[in-house]
């Protein structure tokens, strides 16, 4: 180890911890805390309301406010920053030890897609089971305010509960949870769990012997459905992972085939609706009909996936396309034009 690298690592160990504002009931907060722990990056979590925390600091809240909110230096001043995927990329550049991106270029792209699947499709499971059913919504409405402030009266809790619940239930249409899609979500979730169970019998993480960023994305959503397995992997001794795309077990192929019936066609249909200026859309899928409001952010996610694909070397593009085509997901990277 060079003296420069030693000094850099020592500086990182004693530097001021990274601050983030979150809530235990936020799957993306749980994603990022688990990631920071695995990376052994010093951090300080502030459990509270974002606006209340930022106001005395004279820091403008991000637009929109999405948890977790990180306080990071930008142009010489502390700035509120959100969006977990680009933040992980930033941290990977600053903290190269214990990497969460596969070394193989093709596998790194597959990781990118799976991270987006966790963030953008698995969140539908989380949202649906949290807010679609009255009993679950009643429970979630109580727990979410308490994740921000626990020392409140019953009357205050009732007030915040009603406000939290209304705001989140109104968003069900955005993620696609409704009476018409409920059976589809339930079937998709059970299929996903069966594939995941079979996969974890073969290897401990989605893409090898140590977690990739996609593991943290899926884990974050599943924490809200009582999964705690990736809570703290700071003690995991990371071994060299030389897996390539051809080394992936059949279970990952099975997962992509499942994604081809849900995540992939809905991402494409949503992008088409955005391009055509439609406020909502529906699509007939193999397992039923899907209907939801158009979601601009997910259209951006699809564009970013295609950008990542275009960055690949030509031979890696061919390799990835063959993998996607084999599993009926090639439309993720095909041009719409």
Write structural notes for this entry:
There is one protein chain. This protein has 15 helices and six strands. It folds into three domains: 3-94, Glutaredoxin; 105-126 and 177-332, no CATH class; 133-175. The radius of gyration is 20 Å and the shape is globular. The protein is α+β, with helices and mostly antiparallel strands and 337 residues long. The model has no long low-confidence stretch (mean pLDDT 92). The strands form two sheets. Strands 2-1-3-4 form a four-stranded mixed beta sheet. Strand 1 (18-22), helix 2 (27-39) and strand 2 (43-47) form a beta-alpha-beta unit. The chain has helices spanning 3-14, 27-39, 50-54, 84-94, 105-120, 122-131, 134-146, 154-169, 172-175, 182-200, 213-223, 250-259, 263-275, 296-310, 314-326, and strands spanning 18-22, 43-47, 69-74, 77-81, 280-285, 288-293.
- Overall pLDDT confidence: 92
Question: Which geometry do the CA atoms define?
Answer: globular
**What's the number of extended β-strand segments?**
6
Rg (CA only): 20 Å
Number of domains: 3
Structural class: alpha+beta
Q: What is the overall number of helices?
A: 15
The biggest sheet, with number of strands, parallel, antiparallel or mixed sense and barrel status, is: 4 strands, mixed
């Amino acid at each position: 180890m060079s003296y420069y690298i030693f000094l850099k690592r020592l500086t990182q160990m004693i530097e001021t911890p990274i601050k983030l504002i979150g809530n235990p009931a936020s799957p993306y907060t749980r994603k990022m805390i688990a990631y920071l722990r695995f990376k052994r990056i010093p951090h300080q979590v502030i459990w509270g309301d974002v606006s209340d925390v930022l106001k005395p600091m004279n820091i403008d809240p991000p637009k929109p406010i999405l948890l977790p909110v990180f306080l990071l230096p930008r142009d010489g001043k502390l700035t509120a920053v959100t969006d977990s995927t680009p933040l992980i990329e930033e941290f990977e550049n600053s903290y190269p030890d214990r990497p969460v991106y596969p070394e193989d270029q093709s596998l790194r792209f597959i990781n990118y897609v799976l991270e987006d699947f966790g963030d953008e499709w698995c969140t539908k499971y989380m949202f649906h089971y949290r807010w679609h059913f009255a009993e679950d919504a009643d429970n979630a409405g109580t727990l979410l305010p308490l994740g921000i402030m626990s020392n409140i009266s019953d009357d205050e809790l009732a007030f915040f509960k009603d406000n939290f619940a209304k705001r989140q239930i109104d968003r069900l249409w955005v993620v696609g949870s409704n009476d018409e899609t409920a059976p589809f979500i339930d079937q998709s979730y059970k299929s996903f769990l069966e594939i995941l169970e079979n996969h974890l019998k073969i290897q401990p993480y989605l893409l090898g012997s140590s977690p990739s960023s996609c593991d943290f994305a899926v884990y974050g959503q599943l924490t809200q459905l009582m999964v705690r397995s990736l809570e703290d992997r700071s003690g995991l001794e990371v071994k060299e992972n030389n897996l390539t795309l051809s080394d992936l077990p059949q279970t990952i192929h099975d997962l992509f085939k499942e994604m081809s019936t849900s995540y992939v066609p809905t991402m494409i249909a949503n992008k088409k609706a955005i391009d055509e200026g439609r406020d909502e859309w529906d699509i007939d899928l193999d397992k039923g009909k899907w209907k939801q409001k158009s979601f601009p952010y997910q259209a951006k996610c699809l564009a970013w996936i295609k950008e990542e694909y275009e960055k690949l070397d030509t031979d890696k593009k061919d390799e990835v396309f063959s993998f996607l085509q084999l599993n009926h997901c090639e439309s993720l990277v095909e041009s719409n034009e």
